[in-house]
Amino acid sequence: MNSKERVLTAFEHREPDRVPLWYGASEGLTDKIMKAYSATDEEDLMRKLHIDFRRVREQYVGPPLGDKAIWGVKREGYYYGQPMSHPLADVETVEEVLNYKGWPSPDWFDFSHLAEQCDKWMEYAIIGGPWVVVFTDATELVGMEEFFVKMHTHPEVMQAVIRKVSDFYYELATRFFEAVGDKIDIFFFGDDMGTQLSLIISLKHWRTFCKPEIQRFIALAKQWKLKTMFHSCGAVKEIIPDLIELGLDALNPVQVSAKGMNLTGLKAEFGDKLTFHGGIDHQHVLARGSVNDVRKEVRRVIDIMSPGGGYCLAASHDLMLDEFPVDNVIAMYEEAFEYGKY
User: Fold this and answer.
1) Mean pLDDT value across residues 43-70
2) Residue 178 phi, psi (nearest 5)
3) Averaged pLDDT, 193-216
4) Distance CA 196, CA 255 (A)
């Protein structure tokens, strides 16, 4: 099988020739692994690690953002940073939301390069679509604490914020799919809905404020006959039945150390309906374990998750960090490639 066939077979809950592999890491860690493999560039590294996915992204061509995100939220800190300002703080009415001058334009993004990029990777499973994070971006615009309070006191106003964010991403996704919807395989989007112990909001409020937007984007992707993969860290078992009901194909990254995210239970309860993507513990094993610990964990996870397909191997977070031991990351991929054969 080539990589595309391998991934799509797993997504169909059939057993491919081996477990598909995904890569996600910080630039710093990637540079270290490239040196360890004497890789000429990142694509050379992906081939040496036997990574089955490739990802294409739109290009930002809009006005300079400085230290702000496209929504006008100022950000500081490592990696993605943290929101330091909230332009819609103290918002009280739907009219204020609609009249906010900082809404971004889909015209700020260019899709013209995507087809050529896809054509280079047709033997791989290509992930595409804008990084749709509706609820997270909405809470950053208002401020998370205020947003959570106003879901109770001003629900129609918070729903208006969510819908404006959603409308922007919907148009962006539509343009993306019009450009290369026939060349990509998987639409990947998400929102971090879980803490280490539970959902970040109640199931009732998730169904009111979040579920309709997830449904909207799954339906859009299905119009283009794309597989769908939803990202959420944390303890999200409570919403998995709803995600399956909406027609979601895969869940990423399966944070195994979070409450209720035990792999044996997830596979038994949902493994014939949902593809799990991730699952190698990044909080303890990859970050702090030995090489032998990593290899043992890879074998354990594959034994649990691979039967019947429906599993792609990766760390339990999309972004492995600079401080991860390089030898542990290499051990994860080497063991998975060798042990993951059906």
Assistant:
1) 95
2) -65, -30
3) 97
4) 9
